[in-house]
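FORM 7B: Structural annotation worksheet

SECTION A. Query
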Amino acid sequence: QVQLVESGGGLVQAGGSLRLSCAASGIILSINPMGWYRQAPGKQRELVADVTSGGSTNYADSVKGRFTISRDNAKNTVYLQMNSLKPEDTGVYYCHMQGREMRYTFDSWGQGTQVTVSS
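SECTION B. Predicted structure
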């Protein structure tokens, strides 16, 4: 199964920035889409942003204008640049990818990385 490894979470003050990365391992033929989700304590997991193989992006209304998702197809990696962070952005962030490996299709989640924004 394709594994996703995330990095880049941490503690930051309101107004600060963080950059998350998520790399997929394996012999991967295609990935569509790549995305980031988050889950705050006591809430359901929600889509933050995703990007298709063609570069089309989709953002939750709450992060539009502050977050930017991008992907590096050569590295099978997706990034999430988070600027102007707010305390309500606090949560565990998960990357998600769907695609095709040598022998099968996959639908994989990262292990999650904690983002904490202090006021």
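SECTION C. Observations
The chain is about 0% helix and 60% strand. Residues 16 and 94 are 20 Å apart (CA to CA).

SECTION D. Sign-off
Analyst initials: ____
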